[in-house]
Design brief:
Elements (H helix, E strand, L loop, with lengths): L6 H22 L8 H14 L3 E2 L18 E4 L2 E3 L14 E10 L2 E10 L5 H20 L6 H14 L3 E2 L5 E3 L6 E5 L16 E4 L2 E3 L5 E3 L6 E3 L5 E3 L2 E6 L2 E4 L7
Antiparallel strand pairs: 1-4, 2-4, 3-12, 4-5, 6-10, 7-8, 7-9, 9-14, 10-13, 11-12, 14-15
Helix pairs in contact: 1-2, 3-4
The structure holds magnesium ion.
The site of magnesium ion has 5 residues, from loops.
C-alpha cells in the first residue's frame, strides 16, 4: 500500500533528510586514499547520533537476508554495487570509487540517499560511470512529475544508461520511503513509458539508479550482504529521497553533489 504523506509528515521527513544530506556532504572531505570504509562509518554514525537520529541500516534485516546488516552505512567499492559492509580492512586506494549509502531514522521517519565518491584521481571510464549514474538520478527526479508513472522514471534511467553503453541493475530497485525504510511502490531503474503506478502528490520515493560498466548480472558476495557485479566491472549508485508535489519533485535529501 502506498502511503501518501501529509504536510506535517513532510516536515519530519525534511529533518531526517537533512541529517542524511549533512553526512554525505561531510564524507566528501573524508574520502581519500588510505582511509578505511570503517572510518567512513565512524564519521557517519557519530554525526547521525549527535543529530538525535539512528542509523537506519544497522540491524536491518529484510526477509531475504540471512543476518541483520551490521553496518551503520553501506560502503561499496569498485565492483561492489550496494550493501557493502564497512570494514577496517577495506582501505581506499587512489583511483577507487566508493558508493556510500546513508539511511537515517529520526522522529519516526526515514531519509535515504547515496553518493559514489572518487578516491583521488580516477580513470576516464570510472569518471564517465559516475557522470552517467548521477545524470540518471537527475533524469529520474526530473521525470517525477505528478501524472507521470513509475514506468516513466525507469524508462528515463534505462535509456540514458543504455545510450552510454553501460548496464543497469535489475535485481534491486528504488522504493517508497517514510515511516518504513522500504514502502510501496518499488521504483525499478528500467521500464516502459506510461506503465506502472501513477505519481501523485504526497508520494515519497527513494530514487536510486545503480549502474555498471559491464553486463547486467549481479551476485551476492560471500558475506551474505554485498552485491557485486558478476563480470567484475565497476558499479556506481546515486540516490535521493524526494516527494511529489503539485509543482514538481522536491528533494528531501539536498546534499551537494561530489
Ligand atoms: Mg534506498
Amino acid at each position: 500500500m502506498i502511503r501518501f504523506k501529509t504536510e506535517e509528515e513532510l516536515l519530519l521527513m525534511r529533518d531526517a533528510g537533512k541529517v542524511v544530506s549533512d553526512v554525505l556532504d561531510a564524507l566528501r572531505d573524508v574520502v581519500r586514499p588510505g582511509v578505511s570504509t570503517a572510518e567512513l562509518e565512524r564519521v557517519a554514525e557519530k554525526h547521525i547520533t549527535s543529530s538525535g537520529g539512528k542509523a537506519a541500516f544497522k540491524g536491518y534485516r529484510p526477509s531475504y537476508a540471512e543476518r541483520p546488516f551490521p553496518g551503520a552505512i553501506c560502503a561499496s567499492v569498485n565492483r561492489e554495487v550496494v550493501h557493502g559492509i564497512p570494514s577496517d580492512g577495506r582501505v581506499l586506494e587512489e583511483g577507487d570509487i566508493v558508493s556510500v549509502d546513508v539511511g537515517v531514522f529520526l522522529k519516526g521517519y526515514y531519509g535515504d540517499a547515496a553518493c559514489t565518491y572518487p578516491v583521488g584521481n580516477i580513470c576516464p571510464n570510472r569518471r564517465k560511470l559516475l557522470d552517467v549514474t548521477e545524470k540518471c538520478l537527475e533524469l529520474a527526479i526530473a521525470t517525477s512529475m505528478k501524472g507521470n508513472t513509475i514506468g516513466d522514471i525507469g524508462h528515463a534511467v534505462e535509456s540514458h544508461v543504455l545510450a552510454n553503453g553501460f548496464g543497469v541493475v535489475r535485481d534491486y530497485t528504488g522504493h517508497g520511503v517514510g515511516k518504513k525504510l522500504h514502502e510501496a511502490p518499488q521504483v525499478p531503474n528500467f521500464g516502459k513509458r506510461g506503465k506502472g503506478v501513477t505519481l501523485q502528490r504526497g508520494m515519497t520515493l527513494a530514487l536510486e539508479p545503480m549502474v555498471m560498466t559491464g553486463k547486467e548480472d549481479v551476485m551476492l558476495g560471500s558475506d551474505g550482504w554485498v552485491v557485486i557485479t558478476a563480470d567484475g566491472s565497476d558499479a556506481a549508485h546515486f540516490e535521493r529521497t524526494i516527494v511529489i508535489t503539485d509543482g514538481g519533485p522536491e528533494i528531501l535529501t539536498p546534499w551537494v553533489s561530489r
